[in-house]
Amino acid sequence: MSLVSITLISIVFLSLLPHTPKAYGPLNYACCVKYTRTPLPFGVIAGFIEQSSLEVCRIDAIIFITQKNKKICASIEDQWVRAALAHLRSKIAKLENKASLRLTTAGPNSVIQTNTTNSP
């Protein structure tokens, strides 16, 4: 076989191999490229993710995830976005407080001592 034949066969064979996606970064990562200006009702928001322009994507954004797993891009500069984030953070804080209360509450077999002295 000639060198040209071997080269052509090698090129065809290598082009049939699947390319490694790790070499190109996370291909399934979708970046926000524009914002919605329409406020979302708070009841449809299930959570959020922060997108930073310092990472893979070009703009800073808040990505709201709806209860139907739809992703909505919004700007942190919008008042409705800041209000929604504040509401979500307060819900998280309440859940964390409830969880810590459950951890510190005495169980059914615990003895709770109280001060029963009467003050004049």
What features would you describe in this structure?
With 120 residues, the protein is of the alpha+beta class. It has a domain at 23-102: OB fold (Dihydrolipoamide Acetyltransferase, E2P). The chain contains two helices and three strands. A three-stranded antiparallel sheet has the order 1-2-3, with helices on one face. Residues 1-23 form the signal peptide. InterPro entries: Chemokine_b/g/d (IPR039809), Chemokine_IL8-like_dom (IPR001811), Interleukin_8-like_sf (IPR036048). GO terms for molecular function: chemokine activity.
Summarize the structure.
It is built from two helices and three strands; from the N terminus they run αβββα. The protein has 120 residues and is an alpha+beta fold.
Number of strands: 3
Number of helices: 2
CATH T-level topology of the domain at 23-102: OB fold (Dihydrolipoamide Acetyltransferase, E2P)
Shape descriptor: elongated
Q: What gap, in angstroms, lies between the N and C termini?
A: 111 Å
Main beta-sheet strand count, sense and barrel state: 3 strands, antiparallel
Listing every helix as H and every strand as E from the N terminus to the C terminus, the arrangement reads: HEEEH
Strand content: 5-15%
Q: What would CATH call the architecture of the domain at 23-102?
A: Beta Barrel
User: Mean pLDDT, nearest integer?
Assistant: 77
Give the class from helix and strand content and strand pairing.
Answer: alpha+beta
Roughly how many Å is the radius of gyration?
28 Å
Query: What share of residues is helical?
Result: 25-40%
Give the CATH class of the domain at 23-102. Answer: Mainly Beta
